[in-house]
Design brief:
This protein has about 200 residues and is an alpha+beta fold. The chain is about 30% helix and about 35% strand. It folds into two domains: about 45 residues, no CATH class; about 100 residues, Sandwich (Immunoglobulin-like). The termini are far apart.
Length: about 200
């Protein structure tokens, strides 16, 4: 004699709720439900769920559309996980000291002060200083914002790198002197590249 009645397996309750049992099997299981509150509770929940599913009139999306969406998200995830993927930003000019009125009293022949230009790119700001010397033009500055090392290059019109320097611990840099001309400043960080196009180094 068994003192504890057996419980109906979940899969069997699901078959009962969806009408997949024979009349004799269904009658036997319902007799058990009359004496077992635990199985009766599960059977009621499954019956309610089965009724909701039968009353559902929504249409499934076409299989081709589902496949396209799955491929789109897989491709986007693969691009995000690609180690060599760079975030490229083009900096926007926010300040140029050359637009200010020169101060009175500057002596004739005195060297002009360095031109200061501020650029903004995402969460970074770049302070550029352009100065003319006997050996050519020098570009120096500092990256303001989240910066942990990197490299700065000065690219000429022909696409070649005319000068290159690494950022120091304070994210400052000073490039070697170059001839006058129009250059592109490129700052390369771990996963970000900032470009400052058409920087004119002319008197």
């Amino acid at each position: 004699m068994r003192l504890t009645p057996r419980h109906i397996p979940f899969a069997r309750l699901a078959d009962l709720a969806e009408g997949r049992l024979s009349p004799e099997e269904a009658a036997a299981e319902r007799a058990h439900l009359d004496a077992c509150t635990s199985c009766a509770g599960q059977a009621a929940q499954l019956g309610h769920l089965a009724a909701l599913m039968r009353a559902d009139t929504t249409e499934d999306a076409p299989p081709a559309l589902v496949s396209d969406v799955v491929r789109m998200f897989r491709a986007r995830r693969a691009q995000a996980d690609e180690p060599g993927l760079l975030r490229r930003l083009v900096a926007a000019l926010t300040f140029d000291s050359s637009s200010l009125t020169p101060a009175f009293g500057v002596r004739s022949g005195q060297a002009a002060p360095a031109r200061q230009m501020l650029f903004s790119a995402g969460d970074l700001d770049v302070d550029l200083r352009l100065a003319q010397g006997q050996e050519g033009w020098t570009v120096s500055g500092q990256v303001l914002g989240p910066c942990q090392g990197g490299e700065v290059g000065l690219v000429g019109d022909d696409g070649s790198t005319a000068a290159r320097a690494a950022l120091n611990g304070q994210c400052e840099f000073a490039l070697p002197a170059v001839p006058e001309g129009t250059y592109t400043v490129r700052l390369r960080f771990d996963q970000t590249e900032v470009e400052i196009p058409e920087v004119s180094l002319r008197a």
